[in-house]
């Protein structure tokens, strides 16, 4: 009977993890560029009580075996990189990626990471940076007398200066993409690190080689769907309750067994 107790306990732990993932999704429902996660599970090892094809006492092959599963365990929490809604912000430094690709960001350590959040800023040195002050890659530096910055759909960045009526091109934003997006590790701050083969990352100009284009004055909203998360939360809660009922039932059966004389 202890087998049922431990098996049901693994189910309760699994559903708790599922609720934890859902809670994080709902907490980030208004986080620009956030991609929702889901919890995936796999069954544990099985205890074989009788093997199919074995011979019984009458020297006859047994057609079907007996196996009892020992529960469930988490397998992965993959991100869903489906495109989120595009919203108009009116801020000329905001860029949304329409299609595939990630903005590249260089950390103070020199490592290049990736993001879908295009809420960009200009720091005191004129560099185009993220909300956390991390410089985008390749670096783009605006003149100190720049009065307006324009970002084309292909990532070309140009500015108007106080002393010129013509736009001055100062660089081009590039996008990166990977075939195996499951190799992206979430770092927080809307950043991802490639943990797989770095050769899987392809860098190019927006609008080319399957990469998306940029939309100035827009941001990509979170792709969390509240209704779907609420449904998943309800099913997770019911599964948790069902596993707790199994523990209660197994406990009652053990209690009855202890009463036997």
Notes on the structure:
With 261 residues, the protein is α+β, with helices and mostly antiparallel strands. It folds into two domains: 2-80 and 224-259, no CATH class; 86-220, no CATH class. Helices cover 23% and strands 31% of the residues. The chain has two helices and 20 strands.
The gross shape turns out to be elongated
Query: Largest sheet, if any?
Result: 7 strands, antiparallel
Number of strands: 20
Q: What is the CA–CA distance across the termini?
A: 18 Å
H/E element order = HEEEEEEEEEEEEEEEEEEEEH
The tally of structural domains comes to: 2
Q: How would you name the oligomeric state of the polypeptide chains in this document? A: single chain
How large is the radius of gyration?
A: 27 Å
Q: Poorly predicted ranges (pLDDT <50, ≥5 residues)?
A: none
Q: Which structural class fits the helix and strand makeup? A: alpha+beta
The residue-averaged pLDDT reads: 91
Tally of helical runs: 2
Strand content: 25-35%
Helix content: 10-25%
């Amino acid at each position: 009977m202890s087998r049922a107790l431990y098996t049901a306990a693994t189910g309760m732990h699994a559903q708790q993890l599922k609720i934890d993932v859902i809670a994080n999704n709902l907490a980030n429902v208004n986080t620009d560029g956030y991609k929702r996660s889901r919890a995936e599970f796999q069954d544990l090892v099985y205890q074989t009580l009788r093997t199919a094809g074995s011979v019984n006492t009458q020297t006859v092959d047994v057609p079907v075996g007996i196996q009892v599963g020992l529960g469930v365990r988490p397998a992965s929490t993959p991100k869903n990189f489906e495109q989120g809604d595009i919203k108009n912000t009116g801020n000329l430094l905001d860029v949304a990626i329409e299609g595939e690709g990630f903005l590249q960001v260089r950390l103070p350590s020199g490592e290049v990471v990736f993001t879908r959040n295009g809420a960009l800023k200009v720091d005191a040195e004129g560099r185009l940076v993220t909300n956390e002050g991390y410089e985008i890659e390749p670096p783009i530096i605006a003149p100190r007398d720049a009065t307006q910055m324009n970002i084309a759909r292909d990532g070309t960045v140009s500015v108007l200066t106080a002393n010129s009526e013509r736009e001055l091109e100062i660089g081009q934003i590039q996008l990166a993409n990977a075939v195996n997006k499951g190799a992206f590790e979430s770092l927080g701050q809307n950043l991802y690190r490639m943990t797989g083969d770095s050769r899987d990352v392809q860098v190019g100009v927006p609008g080319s080689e399957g990469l998306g284009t940029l939309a100035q004055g827009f941001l990509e909203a979170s792709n969390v769907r509240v209704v779907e998360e609420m449904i998943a939360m309800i099913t997770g809660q019911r599964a948790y309750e069902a596993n707790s009922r199994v523990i209660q039932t197994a406990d009652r059966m053990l209690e009855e067994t202890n009463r036997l004389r």
